[in-house]
Design brief:
The structure holds two protein chains of two kinds. Helices cover about 40% and strands about 20% of the residues of chain A. By secondary structure, chain A is of the alpha+beta class. Classes of the chains: A alpha+beta, B alpha+beta. The site of zinc ion has 8 residues of chain A, from loops.
Amino acid sequence: MKEQLQAIQVEALEKIAGTDEIKALQEIRVAYLGKKGSLTGVLKGMGKLSKEERPVIGEIANKVRDAITTALDAKNEKLEQIALEKQLEAEAIDVTLPGKPVKQGGPHLLTSIVEEIEDLFIGMGYEVREGPEVETDYFNFEALNLPKNHPARDMQDTFYITNELLMRTHTSPVQARTMKEYKGEKAFKMICPGKVYRRDNDDATHSHQFTQIEGLYVDKNVRMSDLKGTLDVFAKKMFGEDREIRLRPSFFPFTEPSVEMDISCKVCHGEGCSVCKGTGWIEILGGGMVHPRVLEMAGYDPREYSGFAFGMGPERIAMLKYGVNDIRAFYTNDKRFLKQYHQA
Amino acid sequence: MLVSYNWLKNYVDLGEITPEQLAEKITKSGIEVDHVTYIAAKSTNVVVGYVASCEKHPDADKLNLCQVDVGEETLQIVCGAPNVAKGQKVAVALPGAKLPGDIKIKKVKLRGIESNGMICSLKELGLDPEYIPADVADGIFIFPEDTVAGESVTSLLNLDDAVLELDLTPNRADALSMLGVAYEVAAILDKPIILPDESLKIESKKSAHDFIKVEVEAEDLNPYYGAFIIKDVEIKASPLWMRNYLMAAGIRPINNVVDITNYVLLEYGQPLHAFDYDRFASDKIVVRRAVDGEKITTLDNQERTLGADTLVITNGKEATAIAGVMGGANSEVMNETKTILLEAAYFNGASIRNTVKATGLRSEASTRYEKGIDPNRVKRAGIRACQLLKQYAGGTVLADVVEYDALDRSEKIVEVNTARVNERLGTEIDASTIAAILKRLDFTFEQAGNDFTVHVPTRRGDITIFEDMLEEIARIYGYDHLPFTLPVGVAQSGGLTGRQALKRQVKNYLQSAGLMETMTYSLTSEADITKLISPEVREQNPQAIALALPMTEDHKYLRLSILPELLHSLTYNQARNQANLAFYEVGNVFISDEETLTKQPTELLRASGAVTGKWVEHPWQQEVKDVDFFVVKGIVEGLFDFLKIPVTFSPVKLADMHPGRTASLEVDGNMVGFIGQLHPSLEKELDLKATYVFDINLDVLIKKYDAAPSFTSIPKYPSIERDIAFILDEHVHAGDVQTLIKEVGAPLVKQVEIFDVYQGGNVEDGKKSIAYSLLYQHPDKTLKDDEVEASYQEIVEAVNKAFDAYVRS
Ligand SMILES: [Zn+2]
């Protein structure tokens, strides 16, 4: 009987090894281990064995069953693996085909620049304020030390609507409005971005509509060196740590002393090249110490308070930073232009 | 202001400083030098030649054969100029000479005769034709007789001069004169100023008082009038050096009298006017305001009608000049003029400014008066002119100046304290440095320790208060030397307001929904001002607000809608083969119901969008879809969802919009915008394919937005879903049924969604099937089937009653 069992094992293992189909494997399982299987048949004859022989043969029989079962399971797993691999291979796709596009918009370059500047000054404790685009002559001019018939009004060609109402020519009226709101009592820092309008013919460097950002800091004991330091921080963050600034005296009716700020040329670092027209410097913005008349008109006592103000044009900054060479490009909204700066 | 470098050297020792270096220094000290140009730097090897003989060319009528003595030799030159003649001193470009325009002079044969050089005109030497005097404009230039043959013309004609173009800010009227620039340069370079010789020896025994009287009837506008009489003048060309300087300064020389008044105007910044005394035809000058409608023919031969505010110079009978702006033709200096009546006056700047505005006439004189002249230079300039007229026009200057004088010549006093200077600048400048700066500026002052009393010279009318002096001190000290500091005062957190932050979020949402932000103009055309105005804006009866003086018809009105300009952007792109466009803009529109604006309009913030072309572009998986109403509606719904503001859409008919594909947006029963397809006729007009737009009142939404909504707990009990499909008339709006289901089902029905809309097939004609999915939920317990069933039946009945609908089995 022992020999019989061992012969079954040999035969079964041979058959298992010889098959490569899951279905055939199933048949083998039934043929040997099933109710009518050959191993089962042998075991049925165990009753005829002596008491002594029974446990010995039983043990052998169990071993044979285990061996066959293990072989079956192993083979089955292997075949299933092969089948899965085959199936997955059949499921393969061309990963080089394009993906389904996600609809993506983006901000206008000027918005990006304005928000960058806003965030930069917010980090320095500035609040952001806005004002009307249609202004009164008073806030646009008079409150800024530009009385009617002042020669400096020629500096800005104005779109008037009536004698008293106009399209604001700068965001400076927001300065006057803010100071008035704070009633001459509060120290504050603010910037005001917005659209402004000038009576200009549109060409590569002029636009009848453009944007401006102004900053104002009013406090006791504001120094001109504070303006210089603040603008230096701004220039380095906006244009790069390696850029230098230079202040030049200038004139604005609402500041005294007044300054014009240049930054060192990115291309030549001050040596002079065609980008900076040989000067080594590029004009960026204007500013100065708030004129005492302006403080006074807005209710601040100029003996107690002083301040600095500055103003810049995001279009100009964008043109310098990104090489835009025609101001009209900001308002034509060519999709290729818009898209180019979505990651700016 | 054009500043001749060579001319400037007369007043300040410029040493070795090049024109470019000087320009850089001036710019850094506060007056921007736009550029430096050279008169004719490219001309070399041109000398004075004496035309020893001049004969006709044997073979050419229009050519002359000249023997020209150029100092060391005599050259044979063929010359085509009509005005060449024997005995002239002319400019000769020698063989090997270079002229502007890359011209090289060589020995050549002209019609068989050798020519060894070229006799030049000023234009050929590189002078700007605009400033070349009329008498030498059409031919070669002729030097004065005493010029030495062989001498280089470079310095004789000032060809090596550099001209600095100053871009003056309105406050620096003082730099509208060579002397003013000289003071500035002297301060910058820390050098003394050399004033012109103003001595005048009067030889005549006659007094000007016997020839003229001065009456001023408008002292407020004319506080000083000085009249000089110069007899026996000879009108001729002015000296070459003066002509050179005038040309460099951009003024065309005319004759000695006119040139001298212009020269002194440029030198002193003081306008002067020369009348022909005999043609003036009166022994009395009366300065008065014009009679309204009074006429005068000015020097440019234009008849001008004056308003009552215009100041005029009269001879007691008629106007002979518009004061400070332009003289009259009736008293103009002519070639025959013998006696000059010279005016040196101070006119009120604002008055001249008004006259310039009213007449449109602007001159070198008016520009200076408008910006303010130095009261202490008026008479001095007159004397300087007399001196030059004596010297260069052979005139006899009569004794005495006939004057009307009520002019304030006092200097402004400004107190400067050293500590205050440092407080404002953030510096540590000591009193001796300030004193040195004041000396460089040539300001007189008294010093008491750290305190200065500064007498501001009247040439600097822009300095009236401490801050003005502060700027003077700072700029001469050098802005470069100011330290870098940061504010130490106010501790303020800064940041965006809620409105500003939300505006950014709305933009971010629209961008992530696939729209590109645009920036269009706020000013629009007459055709566009009435287009695509949102119904709730139209309800406010908005008037078209027009600019008083638009630059172009395209940008004349303040927009009432962002959409028209946005659509032009679409057209622009489509015309450039970019068909798939999804744009939005957030910006203001301007609303007022006043026909004539008396107060500022309301500026309403709106978000508008326009989408055309393909929305989904994924062709290889057959997913390509044009934008449609529901794409744009989805974006808009998403925006309201994001803002947590419930919105309803109702069909509406609007001008310029597709009548069947447009909806108004309502929040709390108030209109807040619209959405839909453009009317096909507008699409055609704009050359656009099907285009869908939206326009939303962002102001209202921002105000309504609640940044911190109250907490709603997540439901603990299970929900039950039920579906109902109704068959109803095809004209019934799905949204209306949805609203009714919500109303009837409340509070158990939490959510109603449409999941199927079907027409045709087994649905009878004129009907449609709409399937809704209902979500039931109770906050405090698990719902029982019979509770849901009861509600379900109620809904079925209500919908049946309201819309004559039945449940599809
Ligand atoms: Zn450079």
